[in-house]
Amino acid sequence: MKQYILLSGADYKGEGVTFRVLCDNRRKQLTQAGAPGTPLKFTTFDLQAGHVAVTKVTFNGGRRVETTTSEQLFSKVTPASFETRAAPGRPVRRRFKNGRTGVMSITDVYEAIQKIGAKEADTLAEFSVFSHGWEDGPILVNSDDDRTSRLIIRDGVVGPPREEDITVPAGMRDPDDKDARPALDFIAPCMDEGKIALFRKAFAKDGRIWLWGCAHRQELDQILSKIERNPAYRTTSVPDDTPFTFTNFTDPEVTYLQWFLRPVLGAFPDPRAITVKFKHLRYFLCLANQSTYAAAIATAAQVPVFAAPMGTGAIYEGPGKLMAVDPAHARHVALYRSHLGFTFDPEGHGYARFPPGFTCAKPQP
Fold first, then answer.
1. Whole-angstrom Cα Rg for the chain
2. Residue 72 to residues 53, 139, 222: CA-CA distances in angstroms?
3. Going from the N-terminus, what domains does the chain have, and what CATH number goes with each?
4. What is the rounded CA–CA span in Å between residue 13 and residue 141?
5. Residue 69, phi then psi, degrees to nearest 5
6. pTM (2 decimals)?
7. DSSP 89
8. I want to staple 321 with a disulfide (CB 3.0 to 4.6 A). Which of 69, 313, 317, 356 is the partner?
9. How high is the pLDDT of residue 157?
């Protein structure tokens, strides 16, 4: 038997997107591609509806038979689940309210994968997430890891409930936070050594993970564009020590670049006239991708992950189809392919392959 876990996030932006449809499209695609006679099991976690659906594909006398059961295991996510506010360092957007109990979390799906590892090891062929996204992984509801959890407390049988905020201890997941957190998800207490072992055991030898959302950090998109427009840039070979001079970086771009390169190059003497060798630009781009959720879950699961490379977005391919890296970022994809040696998904959607143990070779100054 081959198993597949499909997770659909909520349309927190209110754009009318139904990620569950994309999960169903993927299930149908994988069913059609399956080897005749091989039983398949699809578990679809629909976060917005709170449903978990199990579709089994079996064969009776050579005839394919599909059966689906669905359970309402979690609370629904509705427009009332959101409020308009800003998080530190991020723009004002619709954000998930604190205190929404019973809503599905990414951790619930991790637990489902661990159960497969415990009872049906080596059967999980794919874990796919259809949602909005950023470098820290799938944005399932756009919740905050604000280290504060809101409790609803009732004093006695009668009387209105009251709300109380408590501080979440360091290292633990914020119960109000339903989104992926690479700095917390794959270490204790969320995943200790035993849970990591089960997580890995679930996946088949040829298993994989797909993150179908964006990784479109604006600063990196702009830096990539400025590298590509620099007179020193070539689409094929650029010698390591080729200097690139930039006089058009914004303050956020300088801060972001220096965050990764300061340990190698120190502080930039003049942020308005930065000269960086191409080998250091490549190292910066590698480190930015190494810091992502895609790289973290690839190492945790010990299977390859297909995800948008940093600085690129994802689009919807159309009715009956899936998602793909935005063709508007084709030059970024070409740079990653030609100058960093990235490989991309075999299905042609434009997602980069993040291997387990993603590393970056540190260049000399």
1. 22
2. 9, 22, 43
3. 2-142+182-215+292-307 (3.40.50), 219-285 (no CATH)
4. 9
5. -125, 150
6. 0.93
7. T
8. 317
9. 58
